[in-house]
Amino acid sequence: MAGIGRIAFLGTGAFGVPLLGRLAEVADELLVITRPDRPAGRGLAPRASPIANQGRALGLRIETPARIRSAEAAAAIGDFAPDGLLLVAYGQLVPGDLLAVGSRPALNVHPSVLPRHRGAAPVAGTILAGDAEAGVSLMIMVPQLDAGPIVGQWSVPVSGRETTPELEARLAALAAERIPPALAAWAERRLDPQPQDESRATLIRPFRRSDGWIDWGHSALAIDRQVRALQPWPGAWTTLGGRRLHIRRTTPLPGIPDVPIGALLPGAQPRVACGEGAVALDIVQPEGRPAMPGEAWRRGLARDFVLLGALRPADLEPAG
């Protein structure tokens, strides 16, 4: 593949890591723009973004402005004089003046089959919706969120058992395979932009911790999707005895009639009655303890009848 010119690569999350590695082989020169290192972990030691780590391993030039709408960011990109910008899970909206930098239209790689699941959590949105396929879209960036014309789109079937990290890794590999040839067409001015159908657009907003709370009145299939989708953040959780019980892995099952919603069904395997069906609690994590198999957690319960989810998120917030 011929070189694709000087590219300013704006990215932060792990989704863009395989693609950055591939572009390092085919771009004439790369500038990586990512977020600054942030305190993380119990020791609050500075931690670089996945893209910063990859860029440093590849020996690439890296800039870490706190805000893309800053003079620092504009100067770094302007001095580099890229042929075009490529944004991959960067996490900030790019201002209009930067979209005009370079001789090519700025492009964005988005992990969904647009116009479905615009916004901050497209992979989780795909799982939550129970979509039969997931995908990667390459679009021209416009000021509106994820609304630009599509210049490339690739999809893969969804098994219905993936977690968000697992599906994101599949889509990251797909992007690394399919995006570079499309960027060759970008370099040769051979793009064929297709407008998005606004009538089919959906938006997935950033999650809050309260979004992880499980309403056992929902169907077992919906709850299982919630558990798989909301990893690693905010995680799916319920309450027991005034404390959170994090639900890490479930399996949807048939239910038993006339059992209170949220109650554990009889048997060694912890199964919870839902609004429709039941879910087996395969892996759980009690608050303040490590994750464990559901059966081990069930054996440690002091009583036979257990009702989960009596407290809602607001009940756990401190008063005042």
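Next protein, fold it too.
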Amino acid sequence: MFNSNYKNRLFGRTRGRSKKKINLKNYYELIDKYKFKKCNDKLEYILDIGTGYGETSIFLAKKFKDEVVISCEKYIDGNINLLKNIEQNKIKNIQLHNGNVYDVLESTNKKCFRLIWIFFPDPWPKNRHSKRRLVTSDFLKKLHKILKEKSEIHITTDSTIYVRFILNSIYKCKDYFVWLNQSEMNLHIKDYFDIETKYYKKAINSQRKPSLFILRKL
């Protein structure tokens, strides 16, 4: 059971703008079927933070079939799409947490994650909203505590404002992580991963080139 008495509130919508009604009872029953509860010492885990419509979790689950992907997303419409894909593709190695990622971080003091993905977190571009950004130096240090030795964090954003913010956060964590692709951060994501998410396509269609940060735990 998660303890939600955390001070780190996450902002953003839990529902899309569509007025399409959903059966919340059925939604939570299906979520419970795949719900992440705690880490098992015998398993390898990947944490997918802010999964949107679930494309990254599906990609990771298919790529790393012997590992468990924890999909962490509070966006109900996105989770419904992910659940549909899990059922259709008969995927067995995805577990969901439909809430605040800090629930997951505070539920374990074990180094149980081999890889963490954060693809296209909300950039909150206005200065007055900058404190809402997820990727901060404090957050990276929290992730450091649950990562196995020499494990990695992959972060992608198409926001130039967020790039500068992330760079500053990485600098403050230089004793915690090595930035592996420092000379290649502006390469096309598809030079690294054969994946196209909704937000990736939106960036490309708007002629914004996403930046990818690959950090390895020291």
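About the second fold: Strands lie at 45-49, 68-72, 94-97, 113-119, 147-157, 177-179, 211-217.
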